[in-house]
Amino acid sequence: xxxxxxxxxxxxxxxxxxxxxxxxxxxxxxxxxxxxxxxxxxxxxxxxxxxxxxxxxxxxxxxxxxxxxxxxxxxxxxxxxxxxxxxxxxxxxxxxxxxxxxxxxxxxxxxxxxxxxxxxxxxxxxxxxxxxxxxxxxxxxxxxxxxxxxxxxxxxxxxxxxxxxxxxxxxxxxxxxxxxxxxxxxxxxxxxxxxxxxxxxxxxxxxxxxxxxxxxxxxxxxxxxxxxxxxxxxxxxxxxxxxxxxxxxxxxxxxxxxxxxxxxxxxxxxxxxxxxxxxxxxxxxxxxxxxxxxxxxxxxxxxxxxxxxxxxxxxxxxxxxxxxxxxxxxxxxxxxxxxxxxxxxxxxxxxxxxxxxxxxxxxxxxxxxxxxxxxxxxxxxxxxxxxxxxxxxxxxxxxxxxxxxxxxxxxxxxxxxxxxxxxxxxxxxxxxxxxxxxxxxxxxxxxxxxxxxxx
Length: 455
Fold this sequence. Notes:
Keywords: Cell cycle, Cell division, Cell membrane, Membrane. Pfam families: FtsA, SHS2_FTSA. Cell division protein that is involved in the assembly of the Z ring. May serve as a membrane anchor for the Z ring. This is Cell division protein FtsA. This protein has 15 helices and 18 strands. The chain is an alpha+beta fold. Among the domains are: 86-162, Dna Ligase, domain 1 (2-Layer Sandwich), CATH 3.30.1490; 411-454, no CATH class. The strands form five sheets. A five-stranded mixed sheet has the order 3-2-1-6-11. It has a five-stranded mixed sheet with strand order 14-13-12-17-18, sandwiched between helices.
């Protein structure tokens, strides 16, 4: 199998590292070739804090993915998150040298490169420059400017910024694991690729990806990314609360959360208990499911209040910016029972759980259905998109090129060779441009010249 036929997404999470190998089938859906999973040992709240352990975890996940896919892995598209991530809005423009020529992908790239030169805070680096809408000369609210004519090309951008040190640490871990980093993508953007529909993005939607160490948010409206942020709390802190609140070890706390955890205590019975085995001959411990739900609820409510603060910061409660499609909860933390009901109550928006298998063609055993795979599948989709872009030219530019004949002058020359050549020569002089002769006038001039020579 050729290397360009498949792509790889690598999700370096707080609790697990996942590598997914896949390719696009004939129907445009994603065919998963292999999956590798390893416990994440060197990442805390989305940030690498132990280089050697992270490298070992990446190697283990990639080796498993290579073995199950039966193909070598060289390039990967990697996700980034962490509390150091912030976003800002910025407008910029370029003046085009030749407004008679239509706007191309190169003009847009030139504008993006200009935005990348923005001066950031010390130690920060731009991760993404995402165009929202364009303005060509005086015409605004343009979604796709390629093919248009104009002198001034302007755009509003959503700029995602992160700490240079954190970005360098991820890049080093990937490199020392023997891989090449094809692209670095913000994790909530990757998750949105795999779980959101185009209709939701148009209507207005917030994706809330509750991972092990962070909760990532991305807000879309009118098919445009409007806001992104990372909250430094996730499922891991809920486990820590259960561990402290119930005085049990972390392993048992995680099992309790996954199997019996609930976000709404009122839905649990007082009389229901679960038994935790004692340590080294100590007596077993009985824990009420209602007590467990109260511990979980306190922390989940705190996370959802932070989500609410971000929704307010965007303006989601204003009529023009209203999120008609509500909230999509995804990530491993969204598996928590009754989370959707609590999210509806806390935020006031309808919510659903986002599953990542909608775009996957061969997930027969529903292994990838879990929302915990949303980010890794999204990263794979992003990698496939990068490959597609490299292999095929811009479709808008192709359409324009096919609509305009490549050499109009040659076609006309075949029809009227004796007059076309003379017209080109005339057109190249200032005088000729002012007074181009018609075909009839040229014939009269030729006849007149002939009689003058005869005389």
